[in-house]
Design a protein that fits this description.
The protein is α+β, with helices and mostly antiparallel strands. It has a single domain (2-125), classed as Transferase(Phosphotransferase) domain 1 (Transferase(Phosphotransferase), domain 1, Orthogonal Bundle), CATH 1.10.510.10. 22% of the residues lie in helices and 29% in strands. The chain contains 2 helices and 10 strands; from the N terminus they run βββαβββαββββ. The chain has helices spanning 29-45, 78-89, and strands at residues 2-6, 10-14, 20-24, 54-58, 63-66, 71-72, 93-94, 103-106, 111-114, 121-122. It has a 5-stranded antiparallel sheet with strand order 1-2-3-5-4, covered by helices on one side. Strand 4 and strand 5 (63-66) form a beta hairpin. It is globular and about 40 Å long. The chain starts with a strand and ends in a 7-residue tail after the last strand.
Length: 129
């Protein structure tokens, strides 16, 4: 397994099978885990084509396994970055961490994808002001 990220909030590894293994830890780990699972399920129900698919989740160990969305992107035009996160809002989700580190490129279909939904907001669940 190839370790991609090891921070105080999570460890992320990519298996030889191409799946992504993420274990949450640190402050509010259970809340972040629960939110990411909920958002990924919501986006799958909405058939969003540019996010990982949730394959497994373990609430006791705070682990998820997702499909891979390609390789991390090192450079992207700021307008395209804004456009990509805006496209996600069309599926009813605001990412809330709209940074390049959360963008990948899936070579199989030439598609930019978004990852890491632990802080995302489902827009139709936001109370109106």
């Amino acid at each position: 397994m190839n370790q991609v990220k090891d921070t105080g909030r999570a460890t992320v590894r990519i298996g030889y099978d191409g799946r992504v293994y993420k274990q949450f830890r640190g402050p509010m780990a259970l809340e972040r885990f629960t939110n990411e699972v909920r958002v990924l399920r919501y986006l799958e129900d909405r058939k969003c084509p540019f996010v990982p698919r949730l394959l497994e989740s373990d609430s006791e160990q705070l682990k998820i396994i997702t499909s891979s969305c390609g390789a991390r992107v090192e450079h992207m035009d700021s307008e395209r970055l804004i456009e990509l996160f805006k496209e996600l809002e069309g599926f009813g989700v605001r990412h809330d961490d709209a940074e390049l580190r959360n963008v990948t490129y899936r070579q199989t279909d030439g598609r930019f994808c978004l990852i890491d939904f632990e802080f995302a907001t489902i827009l139709d669940e936001v109370p109106e002001a």
